[in-house]
Model the fold of this input.
Amino acid sequence: MPGMNRLIGALATVAALGCASSGSGTSTPTSAPAPGGNVTTGSGTVGGPAWRVSNMEHVDLWLHGFAMLTSDTGLVPFFQRGYKAQMTAAKRQKNVFSQLDANQQQLQARFTANPALTNAQFLAMYFGSFQEIVNAADLFARSEGNPRAAADPALQQQIALLAATFPAAADRNWLRLFVQGLQDESSRFYHAYWVAEQGARGGAFAAFNEAWLSKYYPKLTRFLNNTQQARGQIALSLPLGGEGRTVNDGKQSNLTAVTFPKTIDAAPEALFVFVHEIVGRLANEAITDNTSPAERRTGTTEAFVGNAAVRAGALLVQRVMPELVPDYMRFYLRTAARTAPTGDPSAAFASTFPLPAPILTSISTQIGIILGGI
Done:
């Protein structure tokens, strides 16, 4: 999710606190809590050479909460298209009504007052479990957002991250209600749903992991290494569709959440979202380099951001796994609710995700440089 995925302001605050707490003499984002932490496994976590494939229940639960509360109208939506309707129907079938449902209107109203609250989608990726979130949120509320209320430096950093994301009293109250709602949602519905889905999608998990180790990762290694994304974790996430979520903690610790394919045949979809995510920074730089300050001030370039990441992903796949380009294009056409042709999808893809030629050329050139002429 280019432009939102690093929580820049929050990480700066956390980094400053980390410097003060540890005396390390650095104020880089590596002082923030490391992305990912412990992994709650259903299908499991499988070790890879430098990037591993995993699943994380607490990240899925957190994203599920946002999916149930927010509107999702983008060309490439934040979550699986139709996710909210599907989950609402599943809960009604089981006659489930949780605190997340009871406080829905109050929680939704805060997004109107503070649209930046949407960025909090990434926070769970900095915690190792949902219990860590509960503990940090509880102390955060009781201390009114003061990190010094915690004796543990790690907890101080977590509270600082929350404080930067929820600065006002109304935001802190929103977090309290949201976490309480998720606890109830999990116990009444989501935990059982999540466990069942891990079993149902176990074949897809294994198929993607095998392809990742044998083909995808070797093909992407040079790009990952040369863009300071040498190590990390790919979390297959139930709520996500064509838009992934990425947090970076320096080149040694990255976490990217991507769509969790439903079937073995659909396993490459996780790769497509991962590629879309790892080119996000490059795509944003190409936009900046090929637009004027006036265009950026007026918001003209905002329409380019999402399309640039989708097109950049296709260009990277074309370089390293050209046989998968048609499937990549069809996946993002379906994600955008467009008809995916059985023949060559290139024209439909380009018209659905238009991008000025100078930006597209810049992206292609940079990918070539990063790959060393491949």
About this structure: Strands lie at 51-54, 232-237, 245-248, 254-259. Residues 8-226 form one domain. The mean pLDDT is 87. The CA atoms of residues 268 and 341 lie 18 Å apart.
